[in-house]
Write a sequence for this structure.
């Protein structure tokens, strides 16, 4: 959590952007941004994405993704980067190595029972594909609710307001592919 805040502040300052300017660009309060930068709170995935977009960078840079040999297309399980949403029960693993030319981002989501993407729907540029590999996932697109079980998949435009949550009594896992890549 502290590393994310340090990276946000460093990136923001290198671009000579004030907290107030970043707050205006992201529609997130300057107070919350200050708490994030000082490692006092962990931003939601949606907030982190807004910050990355406003700073013209990627989520990977903000979470401290280390570079590796870009000629090696294999990413071992032990090399996966994890972005943990503390308190929400969501872990997201990056399933590919860093590549500035990739056009999609495969991720592995692990959601604890009752874990969700946040309190409300969000939207952003791009498209998403989700394949449930364990458990039961509820995805809301606009006002339509879809319940996906193991083996089910869904494809949608990310500019449609969406929200997801684990409605299973056990951990739910899903492979999530997003475009454009964010890590």
């Amino acid at each position: 959590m502290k590393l994310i805040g340090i990276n946000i502040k460093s990136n923001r300052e290198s671009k000579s952007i004030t907290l107030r300017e970043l707050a205006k660009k992201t529609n997130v309060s300057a107070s919350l941004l200050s708490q994030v930068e000082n490692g006092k709170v962990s931003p939601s995935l949606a907030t982190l994405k807004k910050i990355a977009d406003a700073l013209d960078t990627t989520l990977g840079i903000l979470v401290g993704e280390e570079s590796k040999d870009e000629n090696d297309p294999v990413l071992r399980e032990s090399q996966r980067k994890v972005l943990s949403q503390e308190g929400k029960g969501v872990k997201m693993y990056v399933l590919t190595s860093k590549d500035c030319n990739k056009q999609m981002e495969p991720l592995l989501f692990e959601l604890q029972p009752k874990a969700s993407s946040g309190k409300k729907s969000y939207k952003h540029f791009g498209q998403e594909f989700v394949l449930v590999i364990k458990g039961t996932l509820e995805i809301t697109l606009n006002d339509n609710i879809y319940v996906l079980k193991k083996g089910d998949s869904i494809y949608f435009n990310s500019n449609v307001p969406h929200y997801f949550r684990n409605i299973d009594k056990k951990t739910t896992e899903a492979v999530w592919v997003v475009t454009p890549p964010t890590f």
Remarks:
- The beta strands are 81-85, 90-94, 105-111, 127-134, 136-141, 144-149, 153-157, 162-166, 172-179.
- The chain has two domains: 2-62, 77-179.
- Residues 77-179 form a domain with the Jelly Rolls fold (CATH 2.60.120.10).
